[in-house]
Design goal:
Elements (H helix, E strand, L loop, with lengths): L2 H13 L7 E2 H7 L6 H9 L12 E2 L11 H10 L12 H4 L2 H23 L1
Parallel strand pairs: 1-2
Helix pairs in contact: 1-3, 2-3
């Protein structure tokens, strides 16, 4: 898998995170079947263009802390605007806001729908 295709997969999973919810870098990596690549998820999000539609601010570290050293206040502001309570130490409650189960189910529904379409197309 090339870095570009992995990055595109990261972006696709990140787009599935609902407003007001977050996932950890590791959670995104797990959903891609690559649990050891949390740091690479961070690199992928860091390399997004400025005018992206990928909601990068919805990805935080596993402890619910904003670990984006480039624009942590911007990330916190965007999360707060979506109803996520981010404290002065740039932490949030992962138990309340973690979207990993939601994204897991969305991904599996897509996979099943693709399989059905392929089997119908075969005949």
């Amino acid at each position: 898998m090339s870095p570009n295709s992995f990055y595109e997969q990261v972006y696709a999973v990140t787009r599935l995170i609902p407003k007001g919810m977050v996932m950890s870098y590791g959670g995104v990596a797990r959903q891609l079947g690559r649990p050891g690549l949390a740091r690479t998820v961070g690199y992928a999000l860091h390399n997004l263009p400025a005018n992206t539609d990928v909601p990068w601010w919805r990805v935080v570290n596993t402890h619910g802390r904003i670990s984006n050293s480039y624009s942590p206040e911007t990330q916190a502001e965007r999360l707060r605007a979506e109803g996520v309570a981010v404290d002065k130490n740039l932490r949030l409650n992962m138990r309340r806001h973690d979207a990993e189960r939601i994204v897991y189910h969305k991904l599996h529904r897509r996979m099943h729908a693709q399989r059905r379409r392929r089997s119908v197309a075969r005949g």
